[in-house]
Amino acid sequence: MSAATPALFRHPGCALCEPAAAGTALRIAEDARLHVIRVLDAPDFPAFYRVIWHSHVAEFSGLNATDRLHCMDVVAAVEQALIDTLAPTKVNLAALGNMVPHLHWHVIARFDWDAQFPQPIWGVKQREVADAAARLAVPLATLDERVHAAVAPLLGR
Description:
Shape: globular
Number of strands: 5
Strand content: 15-25%
Order of helices and strands: EEEHEEH
CATH topology: HIT family, subunit A
Radius of gyration: 15 Å
Distance between the termini: 17 Å
CATH class: Alpha Beta
Structural class: alpha+beta
Number of helices: 2
Largest sheet: 5 strands, antiparallel
């Protein structure tokens, strides 16, 4: 796996086009059209993944039908891996892009014990949770392996 979005697809000034700063994301899987990362700088939400489209397109409707299907198949595979592995209270899917107009999907396992639940992750903190990652059913490395295994059959299609 490469460490960054291919230069061919980079858009100057876009946070998702530029290589992630060290310690902010872990690349899980990729193909020529997209990549999957785990977000590392959100400790209250250890099972927080993003599916990021390589080319700099702002809206989902900017993809052709084949690319839309591929993107959503990968999003659904990440979601299903989180459900199967962690049995979360809910999985949040979001493609807001208000601050970064580059197509990406947030796929976040949520638990009734997490810091913001039932608020969105950007909402008001409801409680303090020490070491949320330790509360997961499996270690993060195992979760990453399961997410990778779930999306691998879809890559390169």
